[in-house]
Amino acid sequence: MPLNIRRVVTGHDATGRAVVLEDAIASAEHTDPHRPGVAWVNLWRTSETPVLLHANMSDGLAGEQWLPPAGGTSLLVVELPPGDQAAASPPLHRTETVDYALVLEGDPTLVLD
């Protein structure tokens, strides 16, 4: 089932006035055929820090990777169905990024080494 997450991106026009650059359903949505009911959408990704404010706002969103490159950031919306065993014990990972997880609904289990 599609997540239908709306993505609104603001910026500036050639005269410096604030404008809406994009207002649409995020198109970088993915599913995993091995995990029915799992879906994620990439809302934003940066490839470096500090962020280049004039960079392509959709750079890298089309890929299916969850994690950004070292020094980068990403903002994902992920849907995990109740009882998803991979979510209960996902592969542990170490990254050179700052990862954020916001739980909007449910009761997930955090697994650490």
Précis, in short:
With 113 residues, the chain is mostly beta strands. The protein contains 1 helix and 5 strands.
Describe this structure in words.
The structure is a single chain. This protein is mostly beta strands and 113 residues long. The chain has one helix at 85-88, and strands at 6-12, 18-25, 29-31, 39-46, 73-79. The protein is globular, with a radius of gyration of 16 Å.
Draw up the topology in text.
Layout: E1 6-12, E2 18-25, E3 29-31, E4 39-46, E5 73-79, H1 85-88
Key features of this structure:
113 residues; mainly beta; three-stranded antiparallel β-sheet; two-stranded antiparallel ribbon; 1 helix; 5 strands
Distance between the termini: 33 Å
| Biggest β-sheet: strands ordered side by side in the sheet | 3-4-5
Q: Helix tally? A: 1
Strand portion: 25-35%
Number of E-state strands:
5
Order of helices and strands: EEEEEH
Structural shape: globular
Largest sheet: 3 strands, antiparallel
Low-confidence stretches: none
The overall pLDDT average reads 76
Rg of Cα set = 16 Å
Percent in helix = under 10%
Secondary structural class: mainly beta
